[in-house]
């Protein structure tokens, strides 16, 4: 098993990576507000077309914006995957996976966390966002997806990248009877350690501060200062799939290697030479692992 050391990341590199990521996010055309047909690629394994719809979820008084991908003629009730984006991102980052999964018969919901990023179309601001507010958002989304008439409520998986992976992990631990599958892409279990490196006590945390080139609020650090991901995530006792690059300087692969030791049943696939975020062929490779996992879980 390949291992990367958990060294301190250079803040300029982090900021540059995040800004490049956001630039790619915001350049991906306009958000689809109306129903569109999914295109069918020329491969033997992809069988379904799909349509997309804007679909909102409510978390208390806050509204979450999302896009649902609905396969056509794939059954009255279909398995579903809920995609959670990373720090500073939007639902756009899940579009490539949603396209592939929908063409394989899975309902997919990609949404914006409240205050999840500068481009978020959900309510709230980044200064109000934290690990636990995003967990609450995902719980609201899970409840909404369970009630959709075309979704099999006993076949719902969470798929999250980076911070969204960490959120998916803690949410699945709290709702293990409702979450039937868990897929984590380079999950940011490093978040708590990074916070403790920056702040030694609650008194040290300012009202706002800069993280990866963006402004977050005091609550972001408060919720992480004494948080132990590895005491929480192992409560999820179903099969888990983790995908991580061994050249990831934002979240070293050692964090996923430790997670595999904590989960009762987990598979870690390490992508050689890959950094933080999957692009190009790595997306296709990840999708192959995801489809294989979902087939094993849901048939």
UniProtKB/TrEMBL annotation:
The keyword Hydrolase applies. It comes from the Bacteria. Gene3D superfamilies: alpha/beta hydrolase. This is Alpha/beta fold hydrolase. Belongs to the AB hydrolase superfamily. FUS2 hydrolase family. GO terms for molecular function: carboxylic ester hydrolase activity. It comes from Schaedlerella arabinosiphila. Residues 214-278 form the AB hydrolase-1 domain. Pfam families: Abhydrolase_1 (PF00561), Hydrolase_4 (PF12146). Residues 80-194 form the Serine aminopeptidase S33 domain.
């Amino acid at each position: 098993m390949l291992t990367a050391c958990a060294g301190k990341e250079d803040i300029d590199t982090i900021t540059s990576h995040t800004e490049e990521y956001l630039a790619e996010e915001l350049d991906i055309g306009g958000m689809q507000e109306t129903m569109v047909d999914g295109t069918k690629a020329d491969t033997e394994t992809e069988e379904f077309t799909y349509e997309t719809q804007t679909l909102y979820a409510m978390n208390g008084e806050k509204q979450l914006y999302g896009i649902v991908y609905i396969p056509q003629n794939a059954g009255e009730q279909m398995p579903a995957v809920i995609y959670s984006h990373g720090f500073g991102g939007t639902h756009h980052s899940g579009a490539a996976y949603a396209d592939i999964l929908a063409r394989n018969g899975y309902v997919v919901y990609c949404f914006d966390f409240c205050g999840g990023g500068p481009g978020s179309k959900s309510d709230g601001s980044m200064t109000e966002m934290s690990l636990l507010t995003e967990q609450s958002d995902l719980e609201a989304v899970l409840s909404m997806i369970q009630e959709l008439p075309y979704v099999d409520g006993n076949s719902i998986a969470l798929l999250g990248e980076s911070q969204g992976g960490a959120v998916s992990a803690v949410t699945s631990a709290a709702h293990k009877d409702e979450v039937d599958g868990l897929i984590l892409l380079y999950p940011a279990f490093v978040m708590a350690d990074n916070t403790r490196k920056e702040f030694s006590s609650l008194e040290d945390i300012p009202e706002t501060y800069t993280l990866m080139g963006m402004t977050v609020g005091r609550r972001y650090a408060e919720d992480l200062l004494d948080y132990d991901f590895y005491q929480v995530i192992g409560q999820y006792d179903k099969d888990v799939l983790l995908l991580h690059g061994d050249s990831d300087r934002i979240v070293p692969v050692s964090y996923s290697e430790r997670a595999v030791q904590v989960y009762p049943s987990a598979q870690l696939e390490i992508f050689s030479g890959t950094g933080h975020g999957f692009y190009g062929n790595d997306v296709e490779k990840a999708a192959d692992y995801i489809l294989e996992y979902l087939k094993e879980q849901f048939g």
